[in-house]
């Protein structure tokens, strides 16, 4: 995501001073922001209580650090911008602006922040749940590996071009998103006018939440919903009416395509190259940790090279 938005990446294996600076100014603040946003407080609904809650004071520091980093990146990109050869999303956003005023630059920086916030925490949470699901379902993991191995005879990297030929892996990824919903209430929406739905009157400007957790674990729609079973998505069963992890309609998640690609590339190549187990050979607890997204509680994994 960093490379897509600002043309940078962090090397976690051989960390340089520049990598450490990015972790301090970017990654750690992202984690802090999501942690603060995920903790509910009365001040979220009663403005006069906000000064009494340390949450709002603690929230300012990572937010300002995060914003300053992107303000600096916008200025650096202006200095190196080649209109005939844009290098990343930030370059493209700058080229879309007719005039680079202070307000337009703030808008560009804010859009870049939105992409980073939405694209890092969500994908990483889904991948954490994938690792947990594979530790606890070894037969399913092996079935996906065999599919990928039979496809990939030359031991090359799995690419998006392989996706149509890996139906079980595709189903596995969908089942991770269904069984372990990282955003159980989706994104909030509001009504633009008064409406009556199923004999219930909903006034204008009412906040609406889609209870994805209920939808994905309801026996009315899913057989044995608490069981991790990718087979439920096979045989052309797309379940477009009840499987909506990215929302639905014209206002669904703008990053759906990108997120789906990232999850496929990451999960398929991990499955092809490693066997995923726990260090002690036992199953891992799937109890959740709630922030703005839902994570599994911390657990250890062991990767065995295939």
UniProtKB/TrEMBL annotation:
Heme binds at residue 253. It comes from the Eukaryota. Its cofactor is heme. InterPro entries: Cyt_P450, Cyt_P450_CS, Cyt_P450_E_grp-I, Cyt_P450_sf. It is a single-pass membrane protein. The keyword Acetylation does not apply. One of its GO terms (cellular component) is membrane. Its main location: membrane. The keyword Heme applies. One of its GO terms (molecular function) is iron ion binding. Keywords: Heme, Iron, Membrane, Metal-binding, Monooxygenase, Oxidoreductase, Transmembrane, Transmembrane helix. It is found in: Membrane. Belongs to the cytochrome P450 family. This is Cytochrome P450 family protein. It comes from Polysphondylium violaceum. The lineage of its organism: Eukaryota, Amoebozoa, Evosea, Eumycetozoa, Dictyostelia.
């Amino acid at each position: 995501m960093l490379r897509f938005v600002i043309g940078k990446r962090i090397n976690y294996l051989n960390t340089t001073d520049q990598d450490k600076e990015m972790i301090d100014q970017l990654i750690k603040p992202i984690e802090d922001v999501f942690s603060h946003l995920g903790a509910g407080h009365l001040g979220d609904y009663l403005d006069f209580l906000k000064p009494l809650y340390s949450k709002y004071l603690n929230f300012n520091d990572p937010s300002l650090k995060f914003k300053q980093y992107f303000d600096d990146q916008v200025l650096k990109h202006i200095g190196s911008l080649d209109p005939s050869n844009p290098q990343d999303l930030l370059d493209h956003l700058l080229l879309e602006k007719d005039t680079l005023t202070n307000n337009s630059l703030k808008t560009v920086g804010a859009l870049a922040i939105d992409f980073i916030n939405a694209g890092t925490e969500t994908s990483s949470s889904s991948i954490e749940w994938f690792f947990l699901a594979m530790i606890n379902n070894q037969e399913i993991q092996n079935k996906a590996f065999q599919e990928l191995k039979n496809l990939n005879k030359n031991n090359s990297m799995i690419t998006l071009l392989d996706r149509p030929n890996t139906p079980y892996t595709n189903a596995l990824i969908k089942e991770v998103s269904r069984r372990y919903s990282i955003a159980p209430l989706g994104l909030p929406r509001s009504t633009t006018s008064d409406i009556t739905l199923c004999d219930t009157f909903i006034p204008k400007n009412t906040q609406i939440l889609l209870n994805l957790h209920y939808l994905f674990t309801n026996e009315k729609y899913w057989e044995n919903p608490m069981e991790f079973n990718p087979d439920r998505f096979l045989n052309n069963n797309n379940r477009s009416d009840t499987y909506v992890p990215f929302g639905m309609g014209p206002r669904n998640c703008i990053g759906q395509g990108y997120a789906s690609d990232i999850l496929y590339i990451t999960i398929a190549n991990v499955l092809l190259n490693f066997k995923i187990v726990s260090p002690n050979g036992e199953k891992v607890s799937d109890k959740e940790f709630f922030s703005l997204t839902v994570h599994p509680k911390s657990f250890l994994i062991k990767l065995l090279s295939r």
